[in-house]
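Justification of computing resources. Each target in the renewal requires a structure prediction run like the one illustrated here; the chain below, 220 residues long, is used simply to show the kind of job we budget for.
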Amino acid sequence: MPKSIKISPSILSANFGILGKEISDLEKAGADLIHVDVMDGHFVPNITIGPDVIKDLRQHTKLPFDVHLMISPVHKYIKNFAEAGADIITIHPEATDNIEKSIQEIKSFGKKVGISLNPETKIEKVTPFLNKIDLVLIMSVNPGFGGQKFMPEVLGKIKILREKIDKEKYSVEIEIDGGINFENAKLAINAGANILVSGTTIFKNNQGNLKKNINLLKKN
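Resulting structure tokens:
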């Protein structure tokens, strides 16, 4: 069974003009982490923010920065994001020539390690490393843009991972990201996810009432 449910709001849906305030407001509203999507226009077809922005945002919250690197080659940038203030650094197997080496590098900075699986990526890409990482991020959309429709077919991956993690007693959290709303959050939790990434639902629903939206997601 999943651990207690955590909410990691994606700042991709925030107002970038007042991003520091948005992050501070998320902490006050009961968020557990802050999800930062880093895209390079190469590994995925969009460009977002870099380490300097993360460094500037660090002063606005004590919450852990859950940094999802959608950049390639990722190993060149791990140090920059670690030093900028990331607490969890999640990478894609396809973005590194040596996943074992990338895991060790993230750990060398005292950071938690995540591995992300795109909808079409097999779970075999992550299972050999479950004893070395802290988090598996299951993408329920194709990465690159916010506001996409949830892909329920990834729930099977979560169930298999949850069974394996529980059976082997690994200390690994399962995060899901992509199109998460009040309806499908329940499906993700029932499948075994314990961290929900949500952007549009948190920032746009109920007239942008962050606290209400975070609580509604947690209560599923």
